[in-house]
Amino acid sequence: MQTSVRNFLEQNPKLAHFVRFNPDWYRYLSRNPNSVMELERASKSFYGNTLPQQVDKIGSHIQMASMLLNVADLMKD
Known about the structure:
Blueprint: H1 3-11, H2 13-21, H3 24-31, H4 36-47, H5 51-76
Helix pairs in contact: 2-4
């Protein structure tokens, strides 16, 4: 792995953790060091940081809060 890629991973510990968890990326980055943007996209998908994943997470939180409010209203009666 090139030193520039290694330095980039040292500066971004979340990406370094992703690479350690997915060892195929070691080979991929060694062969094509310019694919750092693809690595960032894959790690966002892995950690659930893409926009659709975040919207789903917020939707589930809103649904849970709504359900808790409904239960609280039923308990009040």
